[in-house]
Amino acid sequence: MEIKNARFVMSNTDVKKCPQPDKPEYAFIGRSNVGKSSLINMITNNKKLAKTSSRPGKTQLINHFIINESWYLVDLPGYGFAKVSKGAKNKFQEYIVQYIVNRENLYCLFVLIDSRLEAQKIDIEFINWLGEKQVPFALIFTKTDKLGKNKLEQNIAAYKRELLNYWEEIPPYLTSSSLNGDGKENILDFIEQSM
Prior knowledge:
Elements: E1 6-12, E2 25-30, H1 36-44, E3 62-67, E4 71-75, H2 86-102, E5 106-114, H3 121-132, E6 137-142, H4 149-163, E7 173-175, H5 184-194
Parallel strand pairs: 2-4, 2-5, 5-6, 6-7
Antiparallel strand pairs: 1-3, 3-4
């Protein structure tokens, strides 16, 4: 798939106010500081589409972008250690949950995982919750340029072993680097094949 155009449509905190559910939707989520905005900008060839920040937790709304006028890319708030008040964090989680569970045209939720880190409890809990709710999802290991090939393979293997404590088989996964563009074609192919 080639992305010819990508434009911002709307931001909100209410799933009922999202665009009409008449096109496939692919959403991206991950812990704060996982490189979500950079990944979105890399796969859409637009460095300014999603707002990047050195301060974790910049995304605090459900952001819809229309891609090639045929499907939606959705940028969701991160979860984890973003420096926001507890009340704001609870509010996030409430509308993120409402979106994930109730959005009927959500074809896939991409859960971003920092490839440099060992399996994080919060990620595993979130992945298991998605399984319980039967939400279609895939994992994307980010920041792969920060590791050598062997270390990357070791980290992903360790992550898979952790997941097999809870899952009969490993959920689909991809790898990516926003810095050098690795994984872009695989992510876009995955989206195209699931439409």
